[in-house]
Structures are given as C-alpha cells and as structure tokens.
Amino acid sequence: MNALLPRPSILSIEPYVGGESKIPGVNRIIKLSSNEGAFGPPPMAQEAIIASAREAHRYPDGGATKIREAIGAKFGLDPARIVCGNGSDELIAYLILAYGGEGTELIMPAHGFVMYDLTGRYAGCRVIKVPEKNLLADVDAMLAAVGPRTKLVCLVNPNNPTGALLPQSEVKRLRAGLRDDILLILDSAYAEYVTDPDYDPGQALVDASGNTVMTRTFSKIFGLGGLRLGWAYMPPQVADVLARIRGPFNVNATAMAAGIAALAEPGWIERSVAHNTEWRAKTVAGLQAAGIKVWPSACNFILADFEDVAKAKAADAALRARGIIVRGVGGYSLPTCLRITIGTAEECQMVIEGLTEFMKNV
Ligand SMILES: *Cc1c(COP(=O)(O)O)cnc(C)c1O
C-alpha cells in the first residue's frame, strides 16, 4: 500500500498552540495569554457587529473598499496599497507562499514570531533563525545570513514574544543592506502601543522601497481578535500579487463593519495606550520589586524572566492556582520566561500580588 503523504517539509511543522483560556475547576479566569487588548472590543464595534447580523446572508465586499478607505484615512495611507486579510496571519501566509517556496530561504530573528517559522516551512522555505544580541534583533548578523537563495526577511517590531523595540535606524539599515529582490516583511502588530517618537511602523520604508510590506492587525489594540481582521500596506506590485492569490471573500462582512466602527471610536487608541503605558510600568515595577527580571517591552505584554526553567514553571502554576493564565514561551526557546499580557488595572494587580507571593515562597 502506498501511504498518503504531504510534502516532506509539512511534517517538520509543529502545530501552532494558542494561548490557553481554561483551567479545570476554576470559574473566573483572568486570561493574559494572547495580548488581546485590555478593554475588549470598542463599544461602537460591538454595535456594528450586532447590526451586521441582519445582512449576514449577503456576501461581503470582496474588494474590502470601505474598510481600506477607513484605514487609509486613519493612518494617512493610499487605500489602493492596502490589502485586508482574515487576520494578518493570512496576509503573512500569502506573502511567504507567493515570494518564498522550495529552494528559497527565509531569515528571521531567533526569537521572532513563530508564524514566520511555521508558514516558512509550509511554503518549503529553509528558515534561518539568526541569534539576537540581548534579545534584540542583530541587523549585522541578519545581513550576514543572507545568501543567493534568500527571498524573505521577516522582522516583528516591536517583537512578540520579547517586547523588544529595534531602533528605527537599525530597521532602515536592515532594508538598505538587503538586495532589491528580497521582500522585507515588517510586522507591526503592536505599533499603536509604541510611544517612542522615533518609531515608524513601516510606512516610510514601504513608500521608499518597492520591496517592503508592513502588516497590521485589529486583534491587539482594537480588541477584535475573534473576528480575524488584519491589513498590510505595500508597493502596488505586491498588492497586485496578493489580488491574484487571495480568496475573493477572504474577509467577512462582520469583521469589516466592526473594523470601521473601531477606527471611528473616539479616543480609543489614546485611552488604550495611556492605560497600557501606565500599567505596563506598574507591573514591571511590581515584578522587579519582587525580585523578577523583566525584559524591556514596547508592547501590551511583558516578558518576565525567572532565570530558571523549574522556577518559571512553578510561577506559571502559582498564577494558575489564582485563575490567571499567562503564556509559557518554551516553544519560543525561552523556557525560563513567561509572557504576561497587560490587562485591566485589577488584573495587573492580581498578577503582581500572585508573583510577589510566589517569590516569597521559593
Ligand atoms: C498577534 C500578532 C499578529 C496578529 O495576528 P492576526 O492574525 O491579525 O490576529 C501578527 N503578528 C504578531 C507578531 C502578533 O503578535
């Protein structure tokens, strides 16, 4: 009998494991494992979701015209160069499948976002993970890893799961050092949270080059992860490629309606950023006071480092006993760390209390 088998590279992929959401026997769960935004969906987006129910029999606008116009107006971008996806994960997959494939290489930092590794292998690329310096992407090492088969370089900035922000000058130096036939994917899923005045999520680099794409998402600050809505800003020739390969109705009507409403919610980004900046600092200070190392973060999560694998596991268990789910990042080869989303003020306080108590007892 001949066994049915996929392409060999497929079987090297470990299925993606998302942040957990349940603890057996615990009723009230504090879920701080997927960076979903502290405030939930904006009220106007919730209204739009309900209103969209009446039109659920209609196919969505395959051109995603209104949502692209709303994104363009909000961020000052040409809607013709915006493509929407069923989450930015879908756009990332399209880009890697379109430009990568068997016989090509994809370069990413060692602790970069896992989807680039998984999708790179799916496409058949050889995925090269370049060691960082102090958990910060090492541009010289990434450039040194480039070979004749390199087609894709993927940089998440600020990065998940480390929270690290690479200075703008380094991002520019990376693009400038890459050949023109290499696509640079700048994943700016956490862009809205960044308060560094020098930061550019990628718009300037996309405009300045024909081979850079910026990806963004409604899953983090806009609290719409459950609806799957992402977008990317890109040169016209890349938009043309995605227009050829994407599903004709890849973004659903409810997601688009909610996205438009979320962008229109007055003060949403400002309030979310102010809360995040305040409670990230308080959580960092609380954990440090308890004796825990915390890596610098520009995102809506922090990476707490217990500097010992068993201790990190015990801290995870101690939080779970209090109904708090954070994210173990052993799968990112950071087994001494836990990634903790910045939730509401109350949730952050519960994390600080739980870990302070834990550190007293270890
Ligand atoms: C959360 C996240 C995404 C977003 O994904 P969606 O598919 O839009 O939900 C993309 N990149 C990074 C680095 C993320 O952390």
Q: Which helices and strands occur, and which strands form pairs?
A:
Elements: E1 30-31, H1 43-52, H2 65-75, E2 82-85, H3 88-99, E3 105-109, H4 114-123, E4 126-130, H5 139-145, E5 150-156, H6 168-176, E6 183-187, H7 203-208, E7 212-217, E8 230-233, H8 236-245, H9 253-264, H10 268-289, E9 293-295, E10 301-305, H11 309-321, E11 324-325, E12 327-328, E13 337-341, H12 345-361
Parallel strand pairs: 1-11, 3-4, 3-5, 5-6, 6-7
Antiparallel strand pairs: 2-8, 7-8, 9-10, 10-13, 12-13
Helix pairs in contact: 1-9, 2-9, 3-4, 5-6, 10-12, 11-12
The structure holds pyridoxal-5'-phosphate.
Cα radius of gyration in angstroms = 21 Å
Shape: globular
Task: Identify the bound ligands.
Answer: pyridoxal-5'-phosphate
Care to count the β-strands?
13
Task: Give the fraction of residues assigned to helices.
Answer: 25-40%
State the low-pLDDT regions, or none. Answer: none
Strand order of the largest sheet: 2-8-7-6-5-3-4
Sheet of most strands: 7 strands, mixed
CA distance, first residue to last residue = 56 Å
What is the residue-averaged pLDDT?
96
Order of H and E elements: EHHEHEHEHEHEHEEHHHEEHEEEH
How does the helix and strand content classify structurally? Answer: alpha/beta
Count of helical stretches: 12
